[in-house]
């Protein structure tokens, strides 16, 4: 045979298998397009948005991993459906070298169309994506978006490598199989599946571990450390339960004679038994991808909608000024400068607070807080002490508290300390009073740091003892002065005043820093807008994968059920009964991954709220609303996809 015959044969094969190849090529085009656009966005991200740059770069690597795994998975489905066809070619006289040439041409055609199509559409839509990203992060620049030829070349090389690897896999499948195995590949796996109790129990244990971590983890930083452990456990448990647990459960139903030996139950249980064996991996993939879509979208939408709440949580007051080397004369000059700048910009200072404090970091060691690092201490053992002078506390609250030597008033940002003594570096302090509220901090059950505000009669004496004990110079652990306030005026006037204040204060006073809502808004919007953009972007990518797996599942079941449909009619069942039985099986199996995904996200809800607290989002009601809305919309979309793909299924069966 000459080369043109192989080319015509390959093109003819692609046309004859268009129901499976067209979705595959379209998905490959979308994957290439999304990778290419993301790589260009990462290269063109605003230079002053370092956090966004990191997020976009990480997203490129996520898409690389996804593309490799997903295209391999879909290719394995295609070659499985084609084995019988290839076996026929082999029996008709084509040798394995000739079959290999045909497969090479098919891969070259699909790969070229996918890569070139992805780069074409990626080029067309990249500027639109860049404009959308800038809008989400509230970033306004005049720089033109530039496409990179280097990125285009890297995209071609990366996806050429993936298609080359899929081709090698396909050639190995043909080389290692004989013609008889190829002819019967479509009917392999018809034996009754074995009960794998060990795998079933492993699935239950792994799922239980993942759920236990999600439910019992209380501290945000510990949640961050354990979250990925829980995710891996849940993924392993999901695959194991779909693969082995479902079969074990169905066999238990079959042993119940009163339940099993009824017409409807008999056909449903036996049909699902074989269906679960053949489609367990596909169902697991749908469940895992659905869970990922729900978690990513609900979390990122919550962060984006709640970014103003996040900013207020991070900065309860609008402006914070800190002089890290407290000097009363310098503090007075600084305060006078603040008032002048605010007057010049026609904004009024309100809710003003100022206090002196010393900052210490201690490690909790039993009942004592020490400066020495304790072996194997966790983040929950680290405690930040803000030591505040009593005079400042009385001025802030209007109280007239008095404290003696080694007496303190205590306020914690989390659970109450609850004891009448506290021991710090071998010194015991009497807790005269523990506060439930304080003007310099807030309580929360989802803090990322343990902060103890310790009010003493004179923080300088406290620090003097500390400095002498550890032989430190005064500048190593100085007493700081902090002032915070809100502003009254227009938003533009406030922003102008704060920017001028920051520039002048930090240039004229060596140890002074200015922070606040208006100064951090651009950074916050860049971070959370970028996270929202990436969440929607990756969510769309995973959703696309879910749709394609669902489509291939329906096509696969259509071919399997067509033969089963005929056999069941031959043994006496009516066409209506057969159709009803198969429909009930499909509905039960098809919606099982969705039900499992909803259970996963419901159990993961507590631990995700702790993770969001690290980003200062503590509005649980907002996250619950976003999660419920995401689940509802996804469920509707899932049903629509089922209805559309079911039409292809019934065409094949009938």
From TrEMBL:
Keywords noted in UniProt: Cell membrane, Membrane, Transmembrane, Transmembrane helix, Transport
Listed GO biological process terms: transmembrane transport
A GO cellular-component term linked to this record: plasma membrane
Protein's membrane topology: Multi-pass membrane protein
Superkingdom of this protein's organism: Bacteria
Keyword Disulfide bond tagged: no
Name of this protein: ABC transporter permease
Protein's organism: Coprococcus comes
Taxonomic lineage of the native organism: Bacteria, Bacillati, Bacillota, Clostridia, Lachnospirales
């Amino acid at each position: 045979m000459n080369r043109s015959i192989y080319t015509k044969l390959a093109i003819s094969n692609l046309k004859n298998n268009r129901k499976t190849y067209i979705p595959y090529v379209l998905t490959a085009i979308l994957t290439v397009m999304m990778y290419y656009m993301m790589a260009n966005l990462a290269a063109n991200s605003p230079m002053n948005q370092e956090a966004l740059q990191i997020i976009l770069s990480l997203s490129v690597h996520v898409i690389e991993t996804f593309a490799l795994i997903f295209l391999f998975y879909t290719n394995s489905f295609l070659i499985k459906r084609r084995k019988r066809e290839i076996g026929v070619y082999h029996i008709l006289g084509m040798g394995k070298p000739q079959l290999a040439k045909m497969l090479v041409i098919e891969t070259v055609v699909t790969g070229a169309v996918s890569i070139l199509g992805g780069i074409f559409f990626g080029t067309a839509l990249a500027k639109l994506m860049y404009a959308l990203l800038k809008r989400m992060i509230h970033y306004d620049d005049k720089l033109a978006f530039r496409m990179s030829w280097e990125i285009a070349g890297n995209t071609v090389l990366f996806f050429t490598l993936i298609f080359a690897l899929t081709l090698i896999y396909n050639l190995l499948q043909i080389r290692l199989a004989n013609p008889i195995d190829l002819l019967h590949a479509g009917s392999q796996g018809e034996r009754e599946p074995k009960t794998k109790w060990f795998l079933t129990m492993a699935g239950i244990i792994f799922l239980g571990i993942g759920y236990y971590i999600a439910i019992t983890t209380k501290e945000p930083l510990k949640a961050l450390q354990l979250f990925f452990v829980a995710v891996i456990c849940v993924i392993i448990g999901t695959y194991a339960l779909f693969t082995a647990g479902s079969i074990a459960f169905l066999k238990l139903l079959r042993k119940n004679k009163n339940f099993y030996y009824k017409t409807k139950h008999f056909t449903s249980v036996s049909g699902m038994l074989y269906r679960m064996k053949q489609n367990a991996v596909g169902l697991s993939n749908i469940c895992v991808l659905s869970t990922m879509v729900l978690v990513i979208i609900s979390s990122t939408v919550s962060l984006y909608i709640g970014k103003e709440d996040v900013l207020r949580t991070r900065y309860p007051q609008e402006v914070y000024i800190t002089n890290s080397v407290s000097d009363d004369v310098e503090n007075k000059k600084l305060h006078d400068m603040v008032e002048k700048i605010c007057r010049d910009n026609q904004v009024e200072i309100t809710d003003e607070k100022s206090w002196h404090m010393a900052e210490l970091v201690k490690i909790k060691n039993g009942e004592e807080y020490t400066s020495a690092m304790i072996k194997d201490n966790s983040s929950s053992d680290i405690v930040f002490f803000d030591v505040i002078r009593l005079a400042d506390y009385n001025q802030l609250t209007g109280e007239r508290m008095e404290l003696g030597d080694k007496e303190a008033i205590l306020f914690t940002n989390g659970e109450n300390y609850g004891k009448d003594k506290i021991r710090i570096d071998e010194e015991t302090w009497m807790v005269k009073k523990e506060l439930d509220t304080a003007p310099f901090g807030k309580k929360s059950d989802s803090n990322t740091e343990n902060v103890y505000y310790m009010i003493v009669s004179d923080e300088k004496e406290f620090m003097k003892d500390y400095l002498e004990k550890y032989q430190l110079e005064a500048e190593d652990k100085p007493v700081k002065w902090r002032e915070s306030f809100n502003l009254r005026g227009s938003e533009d006037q406030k922003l102008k005043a704060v920017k001028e204040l920051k520039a002048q204060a930090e240039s004229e006073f060596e140890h002074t820093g200015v922070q606040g809502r208006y100064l951090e808004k651009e950074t916050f919007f860049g971070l959370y807008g970028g996270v929202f953009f990436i969440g929607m972007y990756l969510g769309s990518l995973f959703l696309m994968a879910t749709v394609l797996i669902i489509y291939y599942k329906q096509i696969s079941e259509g071919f399997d059920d067509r033969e089963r449909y005929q056999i069941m009619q031959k043994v006496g069942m009516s066409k209506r009964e057969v159709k009803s039985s198969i429909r009930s099986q499909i509905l039960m199996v098809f919606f099982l991954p969705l039900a499992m995904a909803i259970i996963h996200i419901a159990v993961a809800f507590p631990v995700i709220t702790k993770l969001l607290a690290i980003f200062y989002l503590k509005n649980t009601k907002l996250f619950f609303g976003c999660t419920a809305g995401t689940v509802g919309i996804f469920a509707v979309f899932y049903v629509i996809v089922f209805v559309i793909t079911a039409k292809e299924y019934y065409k094949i069966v009938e």
